[in-house]
Amino acid sequence: MKARLLAAMLVAIPLFAMADEPAQPTTSLDVSGVTAIRIVGEASSIDLTTIEGEPLIATLGGQRIGWFAHWYSNWFYNDCRTSSRMAIAGTLLTVEAGPSSWLEPSDCRVELKANMKGGVSVAVEQAASQARLTGEFSTISLVAKAADFTLGGHAASVRLRSDALRSHLTFARTEGNETIAIAAHSLNTSLAFPPGTRISYEASAATAMVDSSLPNTVGAKPSIVIEGQYVRAAIR
Question: Taking Cα atoms as reference points, which of 173, 158, 170, 174 lies closest to residue 226?
């Protein structure tokens, strides 16, 4: 009898906890007037697009990840996004990703998703970032301790700096004025351009493996500068 009662209580506890949970809030903003975005704080997953015809909205959310994520969500409610925020001042959208508690058994990943007007400038200054940008951008800068960065589309200026960096840049088009600067202690990067693109590049590293199928044309743009201690780069 006691065993059956205990089993029933164990089953009921997660159900009661889930039933009492408030609806998890979602933070979203209209970014139709935004021309620049600055992302700061601890760490986040960033997904930015410039898709014409789609709503111009930025959404800040969170997702629990790690070994204990499923177990944690069944037993406890704790909004991992409460310390993260975003606000618009004039034409600048600022996003601050707050840290999750180190006492929690499951990590909280802050997620930013936004569809914006083409030509927006992007600045990321975080301890760690996973960023994916798709579309048309003016300038892109990233400063981090560790980062995984992907660009698909176009930007007039790209500047990436991190202790450890993996980056993939795929240009859908070029205008002959692009500048790209990538610097990291440990770097694994790839760059791709449309067929027939003329580029200039230089790489400086203690240990480097640079593989380019495009000739290095002095003075040509896109111009690429790669710096690091340990560098692996592919240019296509």
Answer: 158
Could you list the beta-strand ranges (E) of the chain: 27-30, 36-49, 57-65, 85-89, 92-97, 107-115, 120-171, 179-192, 200-212, 223-235
- Residue pair 66/151 in contact (Cβ under 8 Å)? The answer is no
* Cα–Cα distance measured from residue 57 to residue 88, given in angstroms and rounded to the nearest whole number: 12
8 Å CB contact between 81 and 25: yes
Q: Are strands 27-30 and 92-97 parallel, antiparallel or unpaired?
A: unpaired
**Three-state secondary structure call for residue 194:** coil
Here the tokens at position 112 are 């930013």
Name which of 236, 233, 128 is nearest 182 in CA terms.
Answer: 233
Tens digit of pLDDT for each residue in 66-92? 444 443 344 334 455 456 789 999 999
Buried b (16+ CB within 10 A) or exposed e, 116-131: beeebbbbbebebbbb
CA–CA distance, 111 with 44 (Å, rounded to integer): 6
The two structure tokens encoding residue 18: 């889930």
Each residue's pLDDT tens digit, 125-148: 999 999 999 999 999 999 999 999
CA-based torsion, 101, 102, 105, 106: positive or negative: positive
